[in-house]
Design goal:
It is globular, with a radius of gyration of 19 Å. The two termini are 32 Å apart. By secondary structure, the protein is α/β, with parallel strands linked by helices. The chain has ten helices and ten strands. The relative contact order is 0.16.
């Protein structure tokens, strides 16, 4: 199991940017795929603190039962788990399950109206993505996966050292783990192909983070993680890019740094 644990503080910091970035066009498609006249059962895999429900639940109609899966019990223990209502004012209830989502039995998703996940695929190996695609295609319902990293970062103002850092980070995303090589920015394409083999139609939309002066805390934390991972992959990078990190951190603090971090959202369904 290779999915990294996410700190609650990081998840809370990134939640507004996630909400801005996720594709509204795919939400419109989701509504057309959902059953009418009965309560929705939505399984959210790798749910973290429940940000997907807080974003998507109020955009869907009808009574909703969210089943939120995560292996981190501390993230599941959040007081606002049961506080939202649907678009038409109906109750959204929540059940939490401590689960390794890379090894769920498809029977645990039986009866689902919709399966969701966010910021997950790029942290999986090929074997795990294959299991994930098999598991999520089995119930016959639509699958909405948001915010998969695709390896494309643009910083403004630009710096000639940006590309070397981005390439090192992408190599780090594809690093060898204890259970295999992570797919990183290749994961979304792999999942798309596997769902299509299973007979599902797959639509995709870009979902970039657009971070600027109003996102200084998130931008600073994102940059530190991006830079540290790149240097972990290429230990000579810090010396070769002398002064780069301190420059970018100062720009972020002063509100002068802007970043576009590309992601992709996928919706798979049976035609």
């Amino acid at each position: 199991m290779t999915v990294a644990r996410a700190a609650r503080g990081w998840l809370d910091t990134r939640e507004p940017a996630d909400a801005r970035a996720r594709s509204q066009r795919l939400v419109d498609r989701v509504r057309r795929q959902l059953p009418e006249g009965r309560p929705l059962v939505i399984h959210d895999l790798g749910c973290g603190t429940g940000s997907m429900r807080r974003w998507l639940g109020p955009q869907l109609d009808g009574q909703q039962q969210w089943v939120e899966h995560d292996r981190d019990i501390d993230l599941l223990d959040r007081p606002d788990r049961d506080s939202a209502t649907s678009r038409d004012g109906q109750h959204i209830s929540v059940e939490t399950r401590s689960s390794d989502i890379t090894r769920l039995d498809p029977l645990e998703l039986a009866g689902a109206s919709l399966i969701t996940a966010s910021a997950l695929l790029d942290m999986l190996t090929l074997e795990e993505v294959m299991r994930f695609a098999t598991m999520t295609s089995a119930p016959g319902c639509p699958v909405l996966i948001t915010l998969s990293v695709v390896g494309d970062v643009t910083l403004h103002p630009s710096d000639p050292r940006d590309e070397a850092v981005m390439l090192a980070f992408n190599d780090h995303q594809r690093r060898e783990s204890t259970t295999g090589r992570l797919l990183g920015p290749d994961a979304a394409d792999a999942a798309r192909a596997l769902w299509q083999v299973a007979g599902m139609t797959v639509a995709s939309e870009t979902s970039p983070w657009q971070l600027g002066s109003v996102d200084r805390t998130l931008l600073g934390e994102w940059f530190d993680g991006w830079w540290d991972a790149a240097c972990d992959q290429d230990p000579g990078l810090a010396a070769a890019a002398g002064g780069y990190a301190s420059l970018r951190r100062a720009q972020a603090v002063d509100g002068l740094l802007h970043a576009t971090i590309q992601h992709v959202d996928l919706l798979a369904w049976y035609p």
